[in-house]
Design goal:
Belongs to the class I-like SAM-binding methyltransferase superfamily. RNA methyltransferase RlmE family. RlmM subfamily. This protein is an alpha/beta fold. The protein has helices spanning 15-28, 54-60, 87-97, 116-138, 194-204, 207-213, 229-236, 251-254, 287-299, 317-333, and strands at residues 2-9, 33-37, 43-48, 71-79, 107-111, 152-157, 163-168, 219-223, 240-244, 259-262, 276-281, 303-311, 338-344, 352-360. The protein contains ten helices and 14 strands. It binds S-adenosylmethionine (SAM).
């Protein structure tokens, strides 16, 4: 059955926020449609009124530039009555019905929602991939060898009965299965929060941005640092850190000689030795208060770059993030420098989003 929609994978519980984001972003760009989402399903749809716009939406929106989606799949077919006996045949039939959006796909991924129900599909999806891949190659849908430079075919099982068929472009998609990048907890880190910053460093900054922001020997300030998971990431990369928090910081960090701990209020603390390369902040505070504080540090040149979390309220989460970021962005826009700003709800974030702001001089842009 033909179906034309954008399918966004997301953290369970965030379907409504994801749907609001899709509606707002695609609608503003003239891709009109309507959202469909079900609480705790782990995904949301945005159905396009004009099917001809599907390819254009894929080239226009990258998942890395969105907030809540972990993956954005352009869906061109759906099967609503998957039959146990001939699933491969049904997928091939569904593909036959559509015009090939790209002559050939370079890879196929069989996926499922990141939910408890989704976990029951994991084993089946893994096993199903093998015969499906063979059949797709035989039918000319897939390159003979995996080619990750070409569009990828996604077969997403929402349940054992319903599956969506769509594609992503490598430049605009997450390379990770289910759009999830799982990181290994470093056992010598003082807290699990360390994974949030590592996720941001690895998945939100390009290699070039990483070497610029995380200079060995560079200086950083960590607001709300204790017990030290974020400071740990910076110290690991050879940075000097002013760790600000009334709590206790791990001795293992203090003994590196790279950390100064100040028991102070993060809202009034100012850098001890002039401008720092990087400001990070993980204080649990009102979104607009944190955004204002980050803006002050960047506008006043106390920090060159910033990475911080915005804690999400229970309701109007997408709107709250947009409001906080709109006022911050307008302050940055007034400066002579240019700023690369990203906001993502990362896999290791729970009820928060991560913001990275990398400064470049306008000549570099
Ligand atoms: C989520 S924890 C930070 C965890 C830390 N990033 C880590 O990886 O270990 C939040 C911290 O912010 C601190 N905090 C909250 N409000 C603060 C303020 N106004 N000034 C300084 N620290 C604050 C709390 O004491 C708490 O330790």
């Amino acid at each position: 059955m033909s179906d034309t929609s954008i399918l966004a994978y997301c953290r369970p519980g965030y379907e409504n926020d994801t749907a609001n984001e899709l509606t707002s972003r695609y609608g503003e760009a003239g891709f009109y449609g309507y959202p469909v989402s079900k609480k705790n399903s782990g995904f949301a749809h945005y159905h396009l009124y004009d099917a001809a716009q599907l390819e254009q939406t894929v080239t226009q929106f990258a998942v890395h530039d969105s907030i809540f989606p972990r993956q954005l799949v352009a869906v061109f077919a759906a099967i609503n009555d998957v039959e146990k006996e001939d699933r491969v045949g049904q997928v091939l039939d569904a593909l036959k019905e559509v015009e090939k959006p790209f002559s050939i796909f370079g890879a196929v991924d069989v996926e499922y929602p990141d939910t408890e129900e989704g976990k029951t599909l994991a084993k089946f999806c893994r096993k199903f991939t093998v015969p499906l891949r063979q059949a797709l190659r035989k039918a000319g849908w897939l390159t003979a060898k995996e080619n990750l430079g070409k569009p990828k075919l996604h077969i997403f099982f929402a349940s054992f009965e319903i599956c969506y068929i769509g594609f992503t472009l490598p430049s605009h998609a997450s390379r990770d299965h289910l759009g999830i990048c799982r990181l290994k907890f470093p056992s010598d880190s003082p807290s699990r929060s360390t994974l949030k910053l590592e996720d941001a460093l690895v998945n939100m900054l390009s290699n070039k941005q990483q070497s610029k922001v995380l200079r060995s020997g560079g200086r950083a300030v960590d607001l709300g640092a204790c017990p030290g998971g974020w400071t740990y990431q910076l110290v690991k990369r050879g940075m000097y850190v002013e760790a600000i928090d009334n709590g206790l910081i791990a001795d293992s960090l203090m003994s590196t000689g790279l950390v100064e701990h100040h028991a102070a209020d993060g809202f009034t603390y100012r850098p001890q030795f002039g401008r720092v390369d990087l400001l990070v902040c993980d204080m649990i505070e009102q979104p607009d208060r944190v955004a204002k504080l980050m803006g002050d540090w960047l506008v006043k040149h106390w920090a060159t770059h910033a990475i911080f979390n915005i804690k999400l309220p229970m309701k109007r989460r997408y709107e709250t993030v947009v409001e906080a970021m709109t006022s911050l962005n307008s302050r940055l826009d007034a400066l002579d420098d240019a700023f690369a700003v990203k906001v993502r709800h990362l896999y290791h974030d729970r009820d928060e989003v991560t913001v990275t702001i990398v400064r470049t001089s306008k000549d570099e842009v």
